[in-house]
Amino acid sequence: MSLILAAEETVSGSLGAVAYGLAAIGPGIGIGLIFGLGVQAIARQPEAEQVAFRYMLIGFALVEALALIGFVVPFVFP
């Protein structure tokens, strides 16, 4: 009985680009939630606009940092 092995298939292209594309999904959802819920909070309680906006910016900065980390990691660890 002979065993037929499949030829080794190689992946061509940049896997870093695919990894960054997948890594950008999470921060994209996070930013949408932050600003969507922030606008909703300001609409419900307009007098707390300054506080809500401040927390929106802090959350945006943290989520955007995750997006930048996701952009750099595929290039640092090939």
From TrEMBL:
Record GO terms (molecular function): lipid binding; proton-transporting ATP synthase activity, rotational mechanism
InterPro entries xref list: ATP_synth_F0_csu (IPR000454), ATP_synth_F0_csu_sf (IPR038662), ATPase_proteolipid_c-like_dom (IPR002379), F/V-ATP_Csub_sf (IPR035921)
Database matches in Pfam families: ATP-synt_C
Highest taxon listed in the record's lineage: Bacteria
Keywords: ATP synthesis, Cell membrane, CF(0), Hydrogen ion transport, Ion transport, Lipid-binding, Membrane, Transmembrane, Transmembrane helix, Transport
Annotated site location: Reversibly protonated during proton transport: E64
Entry annotated with the keyword Transmembrane: yes
Residue stretches making up the V-ATPase proteolipid subunit C-like domain: 17-75
Compartments in which it is found: Cell membrane
Membrane topology, from the record: Multi-pass membrane protein
Gene3D superfamilies listed in its UniProt record: F1F0 ATP synthase subunit C (1.20.20.10)
GO cellular component, one term: proton-transporting ATP synthase complex
Keyword Manganese annotated: no
Transmembrane segments: 20-43, 55-77
Main location: membrane
Listed HAMAP family: ATP_synth_c_bact (MF_01396)
Role played: F(1)F(0) ATP synthase produces ATP from ADP in the presence of a proton or sodium gradient. F-type ATPases consist of two structural domains, F(1) containing the extramembraneous catalytic core and F(0) containing the membrane proton channel, linked together by a central stalk and a peripheral stalk. During catalysis, ATP synthesis in the catalytic domain of F(1) is coupled via a rotary mechanism of the central stalk subunits to proton translocation.
Recorded family membership: Belongs to the ATPase C chain family.
Protein name: ATP synthase subunit c
Record organism: Frankia nepalensis
UniProt lineage: Bacteria, Bacillati, Actinomycetota, Actinomycetes, Frankiales
Gene expressing this chain: atpE
